[in-house]
Design a protein that fits this description.
Protein name: Carbohydrate-binding/sugar hydrolysis domain-containing protein
CATH superfamily of the largest domain: Single-stranded right-handed beta-helix, Pectin lyase-like
Largest sheet: 13 strands, parallel
Pathway: Protein modification; protein ubiquitination
Number of helices: 2
Radius of gyration: 27 Å
Pfam family, one: Beta_helix
CATH class of the largest domain: Mainly Beta
Shape: elongated
Keywords: Membrane, Repeat, Transmembrane, Transmembrane helix, Ubl conjugation pathway
InterPro entries: Beta_helix (IPR039448), Carb-bd_sugar_hydrolysis-dom (IPR006633), Para_beta_helix_rpt-2 (IPR022441), PbH1 (IPR006626), Pectin_lyas_fold (IPR012334), Pectin_lyase_fold/virulence (IPR011050), SCF-Subunits/Alg-Epimerases (IPR051550)
Distance between the termini: 98 Å
Mean pLDDT: 82
Number of domains: 2
Length: 341
C-alpha cells in the first residue's frame, strides 16, 4: 500500500519538474531570439530594465543610459528637447527622434573636444537630430560598417560626418552647415553620400567667395564610393578626391566654392552629369597626377563651360561635354588677406 502511494508522488514530481522546465525555456525564448537579440516590449525610460528592445527618452533623461540598456538591434526613440551629451554607440541599434524632425531634438556636445556621436559598431542608424558643438572632432564619427545616417542637421563641428576605415555606410538627406568639413571619408569603401545639402557662409572662416568651410565632401584613400545628388555651396573646396579611385560623382551641384572639384593622385573616377560652377579660382576642375578619369555630361551653369586644368603626370583622362581644356599650369592661390582659419 505504501509503495502505491509513493509511485504517484514520484510521477507528480517528474511532471511538475517538466512543466517548470518548459516555463523556463519559454521565458528564455521570449527574452532572446535566435540571434541573441532581446524582444522585450517597448518601455518608457522611467521603467527601463537592462536589455530592453525599445526605450523612449524624454527631455531631462540620459540618452547614453538608454543606449547602454537597449538590446543589440533595439531602438532608442528620443523626444524633443536639448540634450547635452557625447554619445558612444558600441552595438547595433537605431537611435531616432520621435518626430523625425531635426529641429526638435538637439544633441549638443557636453565636451566640445569629443565627438557628439562616436559609432564603433556595425548596423547603426542615426536619424532626425540636430547635432552640434564638437569644435575639434565630429558631429558623427563612424568606424562601423552598414550604418545609416539620415535626415540629420549637423552644424558647428570640425567634421560634420567622419567615416573612418569603414564600408557600406549611407549618408542621405542630411543638412550639413557651417562645419570646417562636411563629410570626410578616410580609407573607406563602398559608401554612398546622397541627397545632402552642404553650405558654409563664413561663420567659421572668411574666404574670398564669402564662404567659411574647408571642404564639402573629401575622400582620402577611399575607393568605390558613390556621391550622388548632393548640393555643395560656399566652401573653400567643393569636392576633393585625394589618393582615391573608382569613385562615382553623379548629378551633384557644386556651386560657388573657391575650388569646385579636385582630383589629386586619383584614378579611374567617373564624374558624370554634374553642375560645376567656377568659384574664386580660375578653373572649375583641377586634375593633378591622376589618370584614366572620365568627365562626361557635366555643365558649368548658364551657358558656361567647365574649365579644367592639369597638373603633373595626368594622362588618359576623358573629357566630354562643355569643357574648356586649359593649358595653364596649376598655380592655386592658397591664401589671401581675406582667408584665415
Amino acid at each position: 500500500m505504501k509503495e502505491e502511494i509513493i509511485m504517484p508522488l514520484k510521477k507528480i514530481n517528474i511532471k511538475l519538474t517538466f512543466v517548470l522546465l518548459l516555463i523556463f525555456f519559454a521565458s528564455m525564448l521570449y527574452i532572446f531570439n535566435t540571434n541573441g537579440n532581446c524582444i522585450y516590449p517597448q518601455k518608457s525610460f522611467e521603467n527601463i530594465n537592462n536589455s530592453s528592445i525599445n526605450i523612449d527618452v524624454h527631455s531631462g533623461d540620459s540618452i547614453q543610459q538608454a543606449i547602454d540598456n537597449v538590446c543589440s538591434g533595439g531602438t532608442v526613440t528620443v523626444y524633443s528637447g536639448l540634450y547635452k551629451e557625447n554619445l558612444a554607440i558600441d552595438k547595433p541599434l537605431s537611435i531616432i527622434s520621435k518626430e523625425r524632425k531635426h529641429e526638435n531634438a538637439i544633441i549638443q556636445a557636453a565636451d566640445p573636444e569629443r565627438d557628439v556621436f562616436k559609432i564603433t559598431a556595425n548596423n547603426v542608424t542615426v536619424s532626425g537630430f540636430n547635432i552640434t558643438g564638437s569644435q575639434n572632432k565630429s558631429g558623427i564619427y563612424c568606424s562601423g560598417s552598414g550604418c545609416n545616417i539620415t535626415g540629420n542637421k549637423l552644424s558647428y563641428n570640425m567634421y560634420g560626418i567622419y567615416i573612418n576605415n569603414s564600408n557600406r555606410n549611407t549618408q542621405d538627406n542630411n543638412e550639413i552647415n557651417d562645419n570646417f568639413f562636411g563629410i570626410y571619408l578616410n580609407n573607406s569603401t563602398n559608401n554612398q553620400v546622397s541627397n545632402n545639402n552642404f553650405s558654409c557662409f563664413g561663420l567659421i572662416a572668411k574666404l574670398d567667395n564669402g564662404g567659411g568651410g574647408i571642404g564639402g565632401i573629401c575622400l582620402e584613400d577611399s575607393n568605390n564610393n558613390r556621391l550622388i545628388n548632393n548640393t555643395i555651396l560656399k566652401y573653400w573646396e567643393g569636392i576633393n578626391l585625394t589618393n582615391s579611385s573608382n569613385n562615382e560623382l553623379n548629378n551633384n551641384s557644386i556651386l560657388d566654392n573657391y575650388f569646385s572639384l579636385s582630383l589629386i593622385n586619383s584614378n579611374n573616377n567617373k564624374v558624370l552629369n554634374n553642375i560645376i560652377v567656377k568659384g574664386g579660382y580660375s578653373f572649375s576642375v583641377i586634375i593633378y597626377h591622376s589618370q584614366n578619369n572620365t568627365l562626361q555630361g557635366n555643365t558649368g551653369g548658364l551657358n558656361t563651360e567647365i574649365k579644367v586644368t592639369y597638373g603633373f603626370n595626368s594622362t588618359n583622362n576623358t573629357l566630354e561635354g562643355e569643357i574648356d581644356n586649359a593649358d595653364e599650369p596649376i598655380t592655386p592661390k592658397i591664401g589671401s588677406e581675406d582667408f584665415w582659419v
